[in-house]
Amino acid sequence: MNASLMLIFGLCFLAAPLEGITVQVQNFSFSWNSVKTLKSLLDAAPKNPRMRSQMTVPVCFHPQLPSEFLPLCSTPKAANVIRALDTIASEPEICEICANVACSGC
């Protein structure tokens, strides 16, 4: 029983820092979990490079897009910021240890 409690506590302790990571691009800040969700939505988009570059803003209409991206989607900077977030999320370990300057709260 004690081992189970320790395991649960340990997992919660390890997961807690990931909740606090914030990714900032230009004037926009997003939680790390939301950026990972965005990355998975972008990865599910067509793989054709020409189509993929056009899919950054249409991802704003995806029903699974976290609501914290909605203010970004209404700006002309949306495509550039989403591409930057996609690049950051391509190497998650770099952000999770805050080696990328856009990531903070580790």
Oligomer: single chain
| Computed Rg | 16 Å
Order of helices and strands: HEEHHHHHE
Low-confidence stretches: 1-18
Q: Report the sheet with the most strands, covering strand number, pairing sense and barrel closure.
A: 3 strands, antiparallel
Distance between the termini: 31 Å
| Distinct helical segment count | 6
Beta-strand residue percentage: 5-15%
Order of strands, main sheet, comes to 2-1-3
Level of helix content? 40-55%
Compute the average pLDDT. Answer: 80
Structural class comes to: mainly alpha
Shape: globular
What is the β-strand count? Answer: 3
Function: Endogenous activator of intestinal guanylate cyclase. It stimulates this enzyme through the same receptor binding region as the heat-stable enterotoxins.
GO molecular function, one term: guanylate cyclase activator activity
GO cellular component, one term: extracellular region
Keywords: Disulfide bond, Secreted, Signal
Offer a quick outline of the entry:
With 106 residues, the protein is mainly alpha-helical. 54% of the residues lie in helices and 9% in strands.
